Structure formats: structure tokens, C-alpha cells
Amino acid sequence: MAALDDDLVQHAHIVTRTVRETLEAWRTRPPASNDAAVNELLAYAARDIASRR
Asked: Which residue in 41, 48, 43, 35 sits closest to 20, CA to CA?
């Protein structure tokens, strides 16, 4: 077992926060479908990771 490097830990925290915020927003504006939900979350995760480089 190995420890995660600092960059990976930061990415995980940021993406986790974005997922929580997105789930909260979906309470009032649910996604149109499961596929739409997955695509939205993946797009946000990609954005979050790209912005940290």
C-alpha cells in the first residue's frame, strides 16, 4: 500500500466537493436522465482536474 501524492489528494477533495454541490443542486433541478447525470458529473470532474494543473 502506498500513500497518495498531494496532487491526487487535492483532486479527490475538489471533485468530492463538486459532486456534493451537484447532488444538492439536483434536489431542485434533477437531471433529465441517468446518462445526463453521469455526463454532467464527469464534465465537472474533468473541469476540476484540468483547472488544478
From this structure: 41
